[in-house]
Amino acid sequence: MTQLMQGKRGLIMGLANDKSIAWGIARALADAGAELALTYQGDQFRKRAEPLAAQLGVTELHECDVTDEDSLDAAFAALEKSWGKLDFYVHAIGFSDKGELRGRYVDTSAENFRSTMDVSVYSFTSCVRRAEKLMTDGGSCVTLTYYGAERVMPHYNVMGVAKAALEASVRYLAEDLGKNNIRVNAISAGPIKTLAASGIGDFRYILKWNELNSPLRRNVTQEDVGKSALYLLSDLGSGVTGETHHVDAGYHVVGMKAVDAPDI
Ligand code: NAD
């Protein structure tokens, strides 16, 4: 596995702390020999991001707020200057007002609907457009989604609607960029306890439910997601594009409560 990403350079956006899915992906890619650039959002995350970047020997660590076009331009310009070229890109970013990640979807405010779509959906398209310019030798892009895009999940609300749009974006981007041998895929991860997830109402119940009812009878880890990202970002996934790949211990195939699952 060590040589799989040797000589490959990629950008991973969305590092908040060592629980972040971005961190699980970064470790898997670094273990496979990739050279990484990482971004974090604003000063409040710098203190956590710096030691993590140092742990992987990452020198390309940049601040980037995806709602700010200048900030995006600056991050990609920095990479263009240092590397000139990019082989892979990972978008592990999402946000919605946690006040609306509980209660009823129908009560979503216009303001939060727009900002959720901006941060969690449009940012992937705008980053892929910038990454494409640097992927002069083909490339692979991955974003993170959740089963709440396909089925109604408790409290996921506007985020479920945003993830459905994100998954549709993956298919359109795959068609646009495929001619240049750039692949675009999504990983639909099962629930993992992260900073973003802690904003979702009853998240502990959701975790327990998935653990008891998934075919593998467990929750997935950052490492599970990292290994699948490695597959999609490396040559192992060379024929795969436009796909939403479930890394959820099989939960998405289940139709009803497992017969051996206790009541929770
Ligand atoms: P996390 O809190 O560690 O990461 C979310 C990241 O989004 C943070 O680094 C945050 O700074 C960043 N972000 C938010 N707004 C931003 C902005 N305006 N500009 C730049 N960055 C911004 O949580 P996570 O669970 O690792 O989330 C990563 C992705 O995985 C998200 O898209 C999330 O929806 C998705 N996901 C998470 C789970 C889960 O259960 N944790 C399951 C499926 C999908």
From TrEMBL:
CDD domains: ENR_SDR (cd05372). It is an enzyme of class 1 (oxidoreductase). SUPFAM superfamilies: NAD(P)-binding Rossmann-fold domains. The keyword Oxidoreductase applies. It comes from Pacificitalea manganoxidans. This is Enoyl-[acyl-carrier-protein] reductase [NADH]. Coiled coil: none annotated. Belongs to the short-chain dehydrogenases/reductases (SDR) family. FabI subfamily. Its EC number is 1.3.1.9.
